[in-house]
Amino acid sequence: MDIVEGAPSVISATEWDSFAEQGYLQLGPLLSEETVERLKERADALALGTISNEGVVVQHDTGGIYEELPSAEAAGLHPTLKYRKINGLEADDEFSKLLRLPVCREIFDHLYGPHATMATFRAMIMNKPAELGTFLPWHQDGGTVWQLDRDPLMTFWVALDDATIANGCMEVIPGSHNLGLLSTFGSVVQEDDVDRHCAKELRVPLEVPAGHGVLLHNWILHRSGINTTPMPRRAFTACFLDARTLNLQTGKFFPTIDGPQPETPKFLEVMHETEVHLRASLLEAENYVQHLQASFAEAETYALDLERALAQRDVELEELRAQLNNKEDRSLFRKRRA
């Protein structure tokens, strides 16, 4: 990975003070022009499926309402450059190198502590396709919607195309991270919070040249518009977290960047063993139900056969009675004639 000469390896105390106050920090140039061009080509190739990676998924950009965006799908399933997001790039040979830039470890150590192992919640390309792009409303990156046992604190963002107002660059509200999460759920904020905290005069557009980086606090209020230009606006972004963070949906940890995977807590091992036992019991119960259903079907068939046999016997008995009655009638007739 080619890093430009003079790329920051040390963030000054003054810059950290600015980040603490503002909730974002311009990191300056991080990638060479050659690296930027190579990564843009790779991102489009992943979206088109000309490069195969089972760990990567793509979300298409419909240019419609944010809440009505389609779900992500396997990369290359429906090849198009009108994509909004390419996720799972921690599993990509080239993009994963960005996660190991020295400045990322420095930022992580400052916010989480040098004792912590570095992991990533998500690493992805965010794209505003040419003359398209979905309007992303004011939101915060955190809350129970993320299904984590703790909120991540930092997002590392690198422009692959110049980010401008015309192509839908991010807007932020400086200092809004100090409000904390405006709802426990997180994500898109309510209209009354927008009215209270996102006045027009407070909004700052983050215009960033290609190859330059930005550090964002996850709780800073931010949004982005549509792309009115004939060229796409792509950026690489990664959310870093303490490797001890648990995915509450799976009970698992996230991929680590530069250290060992944490040991699984004992209670999770017990839960896993319990889950295995319950799944085995469920399978056994399902098999038993299938056996009962088969036995019931067999018994039902036998009952129907028996019912038909009894009906046939009744018919035969009626015929015998009729024959006997007929014989008795003829016998009686003969006696009367005699």
Name the descriptors.
338 residues, Jelly Rolls, 2 domains, single chain, alpha+beta, eight-stranded antiparallel sheet, five-stranded antiparallel sheet
Structural class: alpha+beta
Which superfamily, in CATH terms, is the homologous superfamily of the largest domain? q2cbj1_9rhob like domain
Please tally the helical runs, counting DSSP H or I stretches of 4 or more residues.
5
In total, the number of domains comes to: 2
Cα Rg: 34 Å
CATH uppermost class of the largest domain: Mainly Beta
Beta-strand percent range? 15-25%
Rough outline: elongated
Number of strands: 15
Question: Would you tell me the overall average pLDDT?
Answer: 90
* Order of helix and strand elements from N to C terminus: HEHEEEHEEEEEHEEEEEEH
By CATH, the architecture of the largest domain is named Sandwich
In the CATH hierarchy, the third-tier topology of the largest domain is known as: Jelly Rolls
Spatial strand sequence of the major β-sheet: 1-11-7-13-5-4-2-3
Quaternary state of this entry equals single chain
What are the low-pLDDT stretches, counting only 5+ consecutive residues below 50? none
Largest sheet properties: 8 strands, antiparallel
Q: Give helix % range.
A: 25-40%
What is the rounded distance between the termini? 127 Å
